[in-house]
Amino acid sequence: MAAKTAEAELETRWRDILSVHARTMCEIDRVLHPHGLGASDFEVLDLLAARTAQEGDQCRVQNLVGRVHLSQSALSRLIGRLEKEGLVQRSVCAEDRRGVWVALTDKGRDLHTEVLPLQREVLRRTLAD
Questions:
Q1: Which of 4, 63, 74, 91 is the most exposed, having the fewest neighbouring CB atoms within 10 Å of its CB?
Q2: Residue ranges of domains in the chain
Q3: pTM of the full predicted structure?
Q4: What is the rounded distance in angstroms from the CA atom of residue 101 to the CA atom of residue 91?
Protein backbone atom coordinates (compact mmCIF):
# COMPACT_ATOMS: atom_id res chain seq x y z
CA MET A 1 0.00 0.00 0.00
CA ALA A 2 2.90 2.39 0.77
CA ALA A 3 4.30 1.93 -2.75
CA LYS A 4 0.92 2.83 -4.21
CA THR A 5 0.80 5.98 -2.08
CA ALA A 6 4.36 6.98 -3.08
CA GLU A 7 3.48 6.46 -6.73
CA ALA A 8 0.30 8.53 -6.36
CA GLU A 9 2.29 11.33 -4.68
CA LEU A 10 4.85 11.22 -7.49
CA GLU A 11 2.09 11.48 -10.08
CA THR A 12 0.49 14.38 -8.19
CA ARG A 13 3.81 16.23 -8.02
CA TRP A 14 4.33 15.69 -11.77
CA ARG A 15 0.84 17.00 -12.59
CA ASP A 16 1.45 20.02 -10.34
CA ILE A 17 4.70 20.79 -12.20
CA LEU A 18 2.94 20.54 -15.56
CA SER A 19 0.13 22.77 -14.32
CA VAL A 20 2.50 25.47 -13.06
CA HIS A 21 4.48 25.29 -16.31
CA ALA A 22 1.34 25.62 -18.45
CA ARG A 23 -0.04 28.53 -16.39
CA THR A 24 3.33 30.30 -16.45
CA MET A 25 3.84 29.89 -20.20
CA CYS A 26 0.29 31.08 -20.93
CA GLU A 27 0.75 34.14 -18.73
CA ILE A 28 4.12 34.97 -20.33
CA ASP A 29 2.49 34.62 -23.75
CA ARG A 30 -0.32 36.95 -22.64
CA VAL A 31 1.92 39.74 -21.31
CA LEU A 32 4.40 39.58 -24.19
CA HIS A 33 1.83 39.35 -27.00
CA PRO A 34 1.42 43.15 -27.26
CA HIS A 35 5.18 43.31 -27.91
CA GLY A 36 4.99 40.76 -30.71
CA LEU A 37 6.60 37.96 -28.71
CA GLY A 38 5.60 34.62 -27.26
CA ALA A 39 7.19 32.73 -24.40
CA SER A 40 9.49 30.69 -26.66
CA ASP A 41 10.55 33.81 -28.57
CA PHE A 42 11.45 35.47 -25.30
CA GLU A 43 13.33 32.40 -24.10
CA VAL A 44 15.63 32.51 -27.14
CA LEU A 45 16.19 36.26 -26.76
CA ASP A 46 16.85 35.80 -23.04
CA LEU A 47 19.39 33.02 -23.59
CA LEU A 48 21.20 35.13 -26.20
CA ALA A 49 21.12 38.22 -23.98
CA ALA A 50 22.66 36.22 -21.13
CA ARG A 51 25.80 35.56 -23.18
CA THR A 52 28.76 37.28 -21.55
CA ALA A 53 31.41 39.29 -23.36
CA GLN A 54 33.81 36.45 -22.58
CA GLU A 55 31.59 33.98 -24.46
CA GLY A 56 31.07 36.33 -27.39
CA ASP A 57 27.79 37.78 -28.53
CA GLN A 58 26.78 34.81 -30.64
CA CYS A 59 25.75 31.27 -29.88
CA ARG A 60 25.55 28.13 -31.99
CA VAL A 61 21.95 27.19 -32.66
CA GLN A 62 22.84 23.62 -31.65
CA ASN A 63 23.68 24.90 -28.14
CA LEU A 64 20.19 26.38 -27.78
CA VAL A 65 18.42 23.11 -28.67
CA GLY A 66 18.79 21.59 -25.21
CA ARG A 67 17.91 24.82 -23.43
CA VAL A 68 14.65 25.68 -25.21
CA HIS A 69 11.69 23.33 -25.07
CA LEU A 70 11.36 23.05 -28.84
CA SER A 71 12.48 20.52 -31.40
CA GLN A 72 15.48 21.51 -33.51
CA SER A 73 13.26 22.17 -36.53
CA ALA A 74 10.79 24.27 -34.50
CA LEU A 75 13.71 26.24 -33.03
CA SER A 76 15.10 26.84 -36.53
CA ARG A 77 11.71 28.16 -37.68
CA LEU A 78 11.46 30.40 -34.60
CA ILE A 79 14.97 31.79 -35.21
CA GLY A 80 14.05 32.37 -38.86
CA ARG A 81 11.01 34.37 -37.79
CA LEU A 82 13.04 36.37 -35.24
CA GLU A 83 15.58 37.07 -37.98
CA LYS A 84 12.86 38.33 -40.35
CA GLU A 85 11.70 40.65 -37.56
CA GLY A 86 15.26 41.98 -37.22
CA LEU A 87 15.72 40.68 -33.67
CA VAL A 88 18.50 38.17 -34.34
CA GLN A 89 21.07 37.60 -37.04
CA ARG A 90 22.28 34.22 -38.27
CA SER A 91 25.63 33.39 -39.81
CA VAL A 92 27.40 30.23 -40.92
CA CYS A 93 30.22 28.95 -38.74
CA ALA A 94 33.51 29.35 -40.66
CA GLU A 95 35.14 26.34 -38.97
CA ASP A 96 32.17 24.00 -39.47
CA ARG A 97 29.96 24.90 -42.43
CA ARG A 98 27.16 22.80 -40.91
CA GLY A 99 27.10 25.03 -37.83
CA VAL A 100 24.96 28.15 -37.61
CA TRP A 101 25.60 31.05 -35.26
CA VAL A 102 22.83 33.30 -33.97
CA ALA A 103 23.22 36.64 -32.20
CA LEU A 104 20.94 39.39 -30.97
CA THR A 105 20.74 42.53 -33.05
CA ASP A 106 20.53 45.92 -31.37
CA LYS A 107 16.77 45.84 -31.99
CA GLY A 108 16.56 42.40 -30.35
CA ARG A 109 18.62 43.53 -27.36
CA ASP A 110 16.43 46.63 -26.93
CA LEU A 111 13.23 44.59 -27.08
CA HIS A 112 14.61 42.05 -24.62
CA THR A 113 15.52 44.87 -22.21
CA GLU A 114 12.01 46.31 -22.58
CA VAL A 115 10.11 43.07 -21.90
CA LEU A 116 12.45 41.42 -19.39
CA PRO A 117 10.71 43.03 -16.36
CA LEU A 118 7.33 41.80 -17.65
CA GLN A 119 8.54 38.19 -17.92
CA ARG A 120 10.29 38.29 -14.55
CA GLU A 121 7.15 39.66 -12.88
CA VAL A 122 5.16 36.72 -14.28
CA LEU A 123 7.77 34.36 -12.85
CA ARG A 124 7.56 36.06 -9.45
CA ARG A 125 3.77 35.76 -9.40
CA THR A 126 3.39 32.23 -10.73
CA LEU A 127 6.36 30.65 -8.96
CA ALA A 128 5.84 32.34 -5.60
CA ASP A 129 4.29 29.20 -4.15
A1: 4
A2: 2-126
A3: 0.85
A4: 5
Angle at CA of residue 33, ends 106 and 29, nearest 5°: 105
What are φ and ψ of residue 24, in 5° steps?
A: -65, -45
DSSP-assigned beta bridge partners for residue 100: 92
User: How much is the pLDDT for 86?
Assistant: 97
Q: Given strand 58-60, what is the order of strands in its sheet?
A: 58-60, 100-104, 88-92
Per-10-residue mean pLDDT, the chain, length 129: 79 94 96 97 94 68 86 93 96 74 93 97 91
Amino acid identity, position 28: I
- Per-residue 3-state assignment (H helix, E strand, C coil) for the chain: CHHHHHHHHHHHHHHHHHHHHHHHHHHHHHHHHHHCCCHHHHHHHHHHHCCCCCCCCEEEHHHHHCCCCCCHHHHHHHHHHHHHCCCEEEEECCCCCCCEEEEECHHHHHHHHHHHHHHHHHHHHHCCC
Q: pLDDT value at position 40? A: 95
